[in-house]
Amino acid sequence: MLHIVNKSPGERSTLASCLAHARPGHCVLLIEDAVYAATKGHAAGAQVAKALGGGVKVYVLTPDLEARARAGAVADGVVQVDYKGFVDLVTQNPRVQSWL
Fold it and tell me: Which residues are within 8 A (CB) of 67 and not within 5 positions of it... i.e. 6 or more apart?
């Protein structure tokens, strides 16, 4: 299953809700303002690290990182993807949940 999160973890609890439902083998893709959670030193970093340690794969959309000048600060274990990678994740996962 692919979970897509686009809201900033500093403004909404969307990421926390998503990660509470994500299971080992699931994928979480952070886009738009959610990409901040994938960067070193962010307050949501512990949640992301816990998910990674629990077998959840965490991805972040590189163009959104670049738009926010955070491309060089991606946390360990988080995989960067471009738009093609985004499409690949959608096609590889039979179920997709967008978290609003």
Answer: none
Q: Which fold, 2-99?
A: Hypothetical Protein Ychn; Chain: A, (3.40.1260)
Secondary structure string (H, E, C) spanning the chain: CEEEECCCCCCCCHHHHHHHHCCCCCEEEECHHHHHHHECCCCCHHHHHHHHHCCCEEEEEHHHHHHCCCHHHECCCCEEECHHHHHHHHHHCCCEEEEC
By the 10 Å C-beta count (0-12 exposed, 13-18 middle, 19+ buried), 22 is classed as: buried
> What tens digit of pLDDT does each residue of 6-45 get?
999 989 999 999 999 999 999 999 999 999 999 999 999 9
> Pseudo-torsion of CA 88, 6, 18, 82, nearest 10°?
20
Record the pTM. Answer: 0.96
Q: What are 50's two structure tokens?
A: 């816990």
